[in-house]
Amino acid sequence: MKKLLIFIAFLLLLTPAFAQAKVVYVAQIKGQITSYTYDQFDRYISEAERANANALIITIDTPGGRGDAMQNIIQRINDSKVPVIIYVYPHGATAASAGTYIALGSHLIAMSQGTSMGACRPILGYSQNGSIIAAPDKVVNFYVAYIRSLAHASGRNETVVEKFITEDLSITPEEALKYGVIEVIAYDINDLLEKADGMKTKLPVNGKYVTLDLKGTEIRYLEPTLKDQLISYITDPSISYILLTLGIWALILGFLSPGWHVPETAGAIMIALAIIGLGYFGYRSAGILLLILAIVFFIAEALTPTFGLFTVAGLVTFIIGSILMFSGGGGVDYLVSSDVYENLRIIIITVGILLALFFAFGMAAVVRAHRKKAQTGKEEMIGLVGEVVEPLVPNGLVKIRGELWKAESKYGDDINVGEKVKVVKTEGLKLIVVRLKESRLEEKKGGE
Q1: pTM for this model (two decimals)
Q2: Where is the chain membrane-spanning (predicted)?
Q3: Which CATH number fits domain 377-447: 3.40.50.720, 2.30.30.40, 3.40.50.2300, 2.40.50.140?
Q4: Which CB contacts under 8 angstroms, 24+ apart, belong to 367-374?
Q5: pLDDT at residue 128 above 60?
Q6: Cβ-Cβ contacts under 8 Å for 75 (sequence gap 6 or more)
Q7: How confident is the model at residue 195 (pLDDT cuts 50, 70, 90)?
Q8: C-alpha span between 324 and 30 (Å, rounded)
Q9: Positions marked catalytic
Q10: What architecture is the 21-223 domain classified under in CATH?
Q11: How many whole angstroms from its chain centre is CA 275?
Q12: pLDDT (tens digit per residue) in 245-257
């Protein structure tokens, strides 16, 4: 009996060592809400799920964005196996338009001091004079019902959130907490963990409401990749519009100044980046677009050699496009594991360089060969070197490629047996030749 008690005590001592460490993941979303933003959410949530994290905190600062991407993000949050906390942070940040819907679709909402939330009336875009094109009533009514359903599901204030649309209402953290729109006002991440500890999620996780256990957790930050930062930059509407406008101007300039090729090359790249920045593509679709552009550059280099301009442009767009091709989806940063991607990145760069070299030199040589006028029969003889087998006085015989040909000295001088001659002209079946050294002298004078 005594041994049994000792064994049980030993197991109890070991239990903390085997207990899973508590961890909270923190990620950042900033800028326009696009299909790329969904890829980021998907990656962040999947990373937290794999680690069985106690919670995922996503700091958000967005003026809004695409409605379809916003709905996909909310659906991904609903499917999450870990609690997702949306935190409007840092000071001065805002969760407007699509950002408001995303916050209301989360398991817990927190705001930092000096932030705002709301103003999410749907619009169709902007007119040529810059005025807003209002959405029709049926679209507005749809989003009113949608935002009310989000609030109802989480027990948040339906009346106030409806005013986010009907009155373009924006509220401060204090107002949001007072009206029951958010759950926490926190100064920073640590303050948020302390205040949210012990709270229940506003939406079920894995079918049940979860009491947050956040005290003493390890904080792990999921930093945005260089790709995320680039996409965040070019998805700014102002940047996308400038890229599109400059790209069009560059193409026009290139067409007006043929032969230079720099403007149209830069213009094509800027237009492609602008289209990607407008958010109509996910990472993989954007990658395909850039790969197609890269092939166009490579072919252009082969058809119109530009001393490497199109080759460099093709190589750069090929590498960026290939990297984007393996991005998003699957809940990870890339469609393959990080270990495999390290090798894949080397392969992408190597293949890109080989393709660039092939189109710059190999394919260009093939094109030049096809363009070269075909020469057959007597025409093919011009430029060949032979040997005199019967003195040219000035007529005689020469041997070229093992065949005997009637030949005549171009200048009427005698050329003895054994001397080398070069064919410079044909007259019927007779070749007009000169001494090889005279041919070289003529070529030298011609070059001078």
Answers
A1: 0.63
A2: 239-258, 265-281, 309-326, 346-367
A3: 2.40.50.140
A4: 367/302, 367/303
A5: no
A6: none
A7: very high
A8: 19
A9: 97, 138
A10: Alpha-Beta Complex (3.90)
A11: 11
A12: 887 777 777 776 6
